[in-house]
Design goal:
The protein has 16 helices and 18 strands. By secondary structure, the chain is of the alpha/beta class. The protein starts with a helix and ends with a helix.
Length: 426
Amino acid sequence: MTEKLLARASGNDIVKPGEIVFIEPDVILSHDNTAAIARIFEQLPQGRVKVPDRLAITLDHAAPPPTASHAQNHARVREFVRAQGIMHFFEVGRGICHQVLCEEGIVGPGMTLLGADSHSTHYGWLGAFSAGIGRSEVAALWATGQLWLRVPETMRITLSGRLNPGVTTKDLTIHLIGDLSADGATYMAVEFAGDGVAGLSPDSRAVLTNMMAEMGAKNACMAPDAVTWRWLEKTLGRTRPDNHEDRLATFRQRALCADPGANYASQYQIALDEIEPMISCPHSVDNTQALSEIEATEVDVGFIGTCTNGRLEDIAAAAEIARGRRLSKRLIVIPASSMVLRDAAEAGYIADLIDAGATIGTPGCGPCMGVHSGVLAPGEVCISSANRNFRGRMGEPGAEIYLANPAVVAASCIAGRLIHPAELTG
């Protein structure tokens, strides 16, 4: 599937792993780092962005700005957007770039995106090619509209069956990364397939492709199916009420899938009903344990959010656990977008969480990047639904971060220790 997407983007009939190709991505992503990229861009002779309607920029990492320097950075980004005529710009509060670009229909099946964010693998759940690149590469893309890539080999992961209650694709990704290591898919395309994919919700699919960045993947993807099209039709009907049918028609025309009998560098079979709740322990995502093995671990604070697990399904799972109970430890909940926040509020999930004692933050990255909205104190133990737990990730090298699915996070903040939600709900 990835070879087909890169062949189209490079204007070739076919491409093969190991080839170097020049591609023209449909979307070029940046966020709060746009100002830093602009400083590199200004050193180039072009002066103007070649294709401004391909740029998509969000203010999400330090939003609202926690310091004067962050506010100044945002002001520089807004100035760049005005000067270059950038159409796809999303202000503070709209949410995390990866969630917002999917909701807005900026990216969809058959498209290509290159972004100045390591979790740009995210968009593969829609059937797109998407990969993270460096700031200087983004500046070059602004100037020329092109960038070279090496075509990656593909790892195929075939999913069968269904996840058990209380088990999510966050547990599946932690299981995979624990088995294959944080370097297990370095510069590979990870393609998810099998009848198990059909039973996964849109929110849970995005976790798979997003978290493959933690296994070293260049990109991750799955073919669009009926679930994908239903989500797109419903969501674009809200964000693009005047032209969502045209956008859907474009996506349907561009959608691609792997050929039967395609060759893969490696293949793995995963029975979903064999996956149990998993934890990534400090200070590496591939330092994994089954939840059942470390349930006595005490926690100080919980965090539910990020581009990995800040969607409606995640907040709903936490609210179900919290409803009618009181937290014994702090819990910070930050929706991935303003759409998620609105939906969660209308469904009563936000009220349930507030009644339990949780704090609700502005849609965005929150404490994931370690500069605001819940950074940790020395010695604190955090149970988080985020994607990374290396030392200092949430701002304090002396803190410890455990990664888990959102229901486990909520349950642990009620119990004060790592706990299976079923121990509370029966």
